[in-house]
Structure of EVE domain-containing protein:
Amino acid sequence: MAYWLYKSEPSAWSWEQQKAAGAKGTEWTGVRNYLARNNMRAMKIGDKGFFYHSNEGLEIVGIVEVCALSHPDSSAKGDPKWDCVDIRAVMDVPKPVTLKEIKANSKFEKMALVTSMRLSVQPVMDEEYLEICRLGGIDKPPRSSD
DNA sequence: GCCAACGTTGGC
DNA sequence: GCCAACGTTGGC
């Protein structure tokens, strides 16, 4: 069971656009960082994750899930170094959880969002996932492949 | 818009 | 293989 967090600048690709992409989902292209890529390679179908708005908003706005395993990133022009998964929107976070709240909460002091500020695709611990869902007003958090 | 953090590149 | 220079990310 694993959870993840995906960062996106809303001016480049927003949660609204992700939702509009529907159940088919979209390729999470453009990641050019080895750690982030390795995280995507480790993902399984149905793994849940947060959709985070960087630069503007600075908050977790939605929950997504992996709907295709990692495959060559079509935006990488055949460069075999870069892979990505497909993700699709699962649900809104009714009360978006802000970076400020996360930083102010000692439960999240080890969270990658705090410790590895610049990593664009990062792992989320089970406890962190559940706590953020609670803060976000989600009664029954969708779980990764049970 | 600034700048700190940090990943990547390239000269040696 | 080291490390300085450079580029990018992303919070503020």
